[in-house]
Amino acid sequence: MRASNVSRKTKETDVQVMLDLDKSASPEISTGIGFFDHMLTALGVHSGFTLYVRCKGDLEVDGHHTVEDVGIALGQAFAEAVGDRAGIARYGSKYIPMDEALAFCALDVSGRPFLRFGADFPQETAGDFDSCLAAEFFRAFACNAGLTLHLKAECGDNTHHMIEAMFKALAHALREAAEVVSDGVLSSKGVL
């Protein structure tokens, strides 16, 4: 069973994440940041994974700790769920349009964390979410999931649309990469 439960508790946040790569259910998300909840819901729906996220964070400071720590916990859950990565397609990529915005994601479930992020957001916020936190989430997720992750907002005039297209592109690329396609590890070395 490719599923994981991760808890992360610090002086700044208390996060619980449940992820199941093989079952699809309606996401249950509550972080206290409305726009972030919307993005994580999109990630769950578009990946086809079961995703449960609860976070109580120090939002009186700002959203940074909540967003980053959810990224850490979700990345750890993904890494645990894929295990030794044997049998998975490993690579995934997707372009996602959302109205005037277009996002691209390419990833490798390699065990070698890396993020290349490109976005020039025209607005500083999307709802109650500071747009700079998008990169913080994706970095925390990639580093803890063991992903080589390239994400780019190719164009857009609306920060909400651009970030949402990026989350959906990530979701579809993850679904593709996590698909079970063989028995062995997809590597000429035999290991990742």
Textual characterization of the structure:
The protein has 192 residues and is an alpha+beta fold. The protein has one domain (3-178): Imidazole glycerol phosphate dehydratase, domain 1 (Ribosomal Protein S5, domain 2, 2-Layer Sandwich). It is built from four helices and ten strands, in the order E-E-E-H-E-H-E-E-E-E-E-H-E-H. A four-stranded mixed β-sheet has the order 1-2-4-3, covered by helices on one side. Strands 5-6-10-7 form a four-stranded mixed β-sheet, with helices on one face. A two-stranded antiparallel ribbon has the order 8-9. Strand 1 (3-9) and strand 2 (13-20) form a beta hairpin. Helix 1 runs parallel beside helix 4 and helix 2 packs parallel to helix 3 (133-145). The longest helix is centred in the last third of the chain and has 20 residues, at 159-178. The model has no long low-confidence stretch (mean pLDDT 96).
Q: What would the CATH topology be? A: Ribosomal Protein S5, domain 2
**Number of H/I helices:** 4
The low-confidence runs, each spanning 5 or more residues with pLDDT under 50, are none
Sheet with the most strands?
4 strands, mixed
Q: What structural category arises from helix and sheet content?
A: alpha+beta
- Report the C-alpha radius of gyration, rounded: 16 Å
Count of DSSP E strands? 10
Report how far the terminal alpha carbons are from each other: 20 Å
**How many structural domains?**
1
Helix content: 25-40%
- Name given to the CATH homologous superfamily: Imidazole glycerol phosphate dehydratase, domain 1
